[in-house]
Amino acid sequence: MTGISRRQFNIGAAAAAGALATSHGAFAQAYPSQDVHFICAFPAGSGADVIVRWYAEKLRPIMGQNIVVENKVGAIGHLATEYTARAKPDGYTIYLHGPASLAANQHIIRNSSLDVAKAITIAGTVNRQPNMLVVRADSPFKTVADVTAHVRAKGDKATYGISNPVGKVMAALYSEHEKLKAVEVTYRTATDSLNDMASGAIDYGIFDNIFSAAQARAGRVRMLAISMPERLQAFPDLPTMQEQGVPISLTGGFAAMVPSATPQPVVDRIFAMFEQVNKTDDAKKFLNSIASDPWITTQKEAQAFFVKEVAAWADYVRIAKIEQQG
């Protein structure tokens, strides 16, 4: 080594690393020191927007700063994802959305230049939620096996309703495993299916948890199974598809996400703040009311789940024959 001894070089490198760690630590301690922006991929007043604004309200006193909710709507959520990935990685832009939705869009959005598993980091967990297999409230079907037998007997005269990509995948996996020939009917929103469900025009539906639970409480549908591998705390008596012999494991839910270049001390601080909220009785009550459970885990486990989802959705999109968009 010319002009400088190895010992001097090592001392200098150690000092630089120490200074960087100190600066990151000081930044994390000072965080947040200005308004924090929560990004929502859906319109104001939507179910997702309700979740985002509830967490904004609960985190405001913990952060000690104003939280501004921004609705970045478009491209089935991908617009908000790209906005977050390109934001300054300082912890002041936090995206509340479903990791599974980002994973799906990675394979659905045509010509996307974004590798979400590398561009986005989970900086907080919110909830875990399923899609649900439902039938009309006065249906004779009480189990998934009842539906399977009926649909198998009807062949390609049977129909089912969906309204989102996760429902489409769940339905495709169900049909593939049980060798069903039922025809898919896609609705703009799950609510649009209610008349067809009531009249018997569709034999069953696979819809999101919020719609399914609300309509079950209103006496319009009966919930038969969930897509998650474990039962919901919110509905402990509602069995999973796996328990009823159909090996489906699809878990949705929300997380708080930031650009991957965000310093780890800041990520850890954000994660701790969301965890503080999630461990309250208020959070459990709120999330259970929308048919979901608090997602309590570690930051590393949450990120590993996200990366695994991105890989899994390549197969899901193929199996469900989901057409690319954009």
- Spatially, the strands of the biggest sheet line up as 2-1-3-11-4
Query: What's the CATH H-level homologous superfamily of the largest domain?
Result: Bordetella uptake gene, domain 1
What's the CATH class label of the largest domain? Alpha Beta
Q: Domains counted in the coordinates: how many? A: 2
Question: What is the global morphology?
Answer: globular
What is the CATH third-level topology name of the largest domain? D-Maltodextrin-Binding Protein, domain 2
Number of strands: 12
In angstroms, what is the radius of gyration? 23 Å
What portion of residues is helical? 40-55%
What is the strand content? 15-25%
Secondary-structure element order, N to C: HEHEHEHHEEEHEHEHEHEEHHEH
* Backbone structural class: alpha/beta
N- to C-terminal separation?
54 Å
Averaging pLDDT over every residue, what do you get? 92
Q: In the CATH classification, which architecture of the largest domain applies? A: 3-Layer(aba) Sandwich
Give start-end ranges of low-pLDDT stretches: 19-23
Largest sheet: 5 strands, mixed
